[in-house]
Amino acid sequence: MAELDASFKLSERTALLTGPCTTINQSIATKLTSLGCNVALVDRNIERSSRFAEQLMNNREIHERHGRAVAIQADLSKSHHVQDAASRAAESFGGLDIYIDGLMTSDVREFRDPQSLEDLDRMMDVNLRSPLMMTHAVLKFLEGRKRGRVIYLQHDVVRIGLEKNGILAATRGGLPDFTRVLAREVAVNNVTVNVVALGISEEFLIQQSSPPGAPGTRGIGAATSQTSINEALQALRQSFPRATMIEPDRVSNLVAFLASPLGAGITGQTISVNQGLI
């Protein structure tokens, strides 16, 4: 058991996590730091990410074996911001070992809607262009360590096919194919690349319950009533009767496994944590 525990530790490793402080991303950062991993939180909203980084550092004062955390502000649609964020994360903790992309957005509307393409550039920037640019920026660090990990988060409805999410599927759905190709290219340097496909999260339901173009579709975590979230879940169950809210720690446990030495043999894969969403 002690040998297994040692294999799951992430001390002396650094993760760069992109995306807002959603329940999923917070759970991932909390799990990684609890295993000794340092985490750089990269988000446009520096106030939100700074507060959460401070919370993680407070946990470290109680549990000295926890990793450290830092918040880095960046607009990942801009290539110079991407390069700067990767460099600052590496400088903060002496290198980079893990890149986790938790930056996803949606614009819920039917594709035949006359306005369906109005937000295409933003959707492309957030869901596809940003992760590709950040991956390119961090690979030099990951390959140098000979133990790197790349993990992309994706809504599993992209695979299943949920109405009014066609642009999300188009802009995020290419990552699994890209993952398989990149996994082959970087295997020589012991870097693994995988996709974790998420079930139904609270933030996803917020997006689904927001009118097209409303703030909830642009800024995950916007104020939305619990009633609206429950209504969105009931509406989803009309197409997927077994749809259930995913518990964030189920996602973070898988991410931590893939990031740890125990996950070294898994690469090029898309793994669903969807709470029975079929």
Describe the protein in words.
There is one protein chain. Strands 3-2-1-4-5-6-7 form a seven-stranded parallel beta sheet, with helices on both faces. It has helices at residues 2-7, 23-34, 46-62, 79-93, 120-145, 157-160, 166-172, 175-186, 202-209, 215-218, 226-236, 248-259; strands at 14-18, 38-43, 69-73, 98-101, 149-155, 192-198, 270-273. Helix 2 links the parallel strand 1 and strand 2 (38-43). It is built from twelve helices and seven strands. The two termini are 35 Å apart. It has 278 residues and is an alpha/beta fold. The protein is 48% helix and 14% strand.
Q: Approximately how much beta-strand content do the residues carry?
A: 5-15%
Which residue ranges are poorly predicted, with pLDDT under 50 across at least 5 consecutive positions? 215-223
User: How many strands appear in the DSSP assignment?
Assistant: 7
Q: Which series of helices and strands comes N to C?
A: HEHEHEHEHEHHHEHHHHE
Shape: globular
| Major β-sheet profile | 7 strands, parallel
* Mean of pLDDT: 90
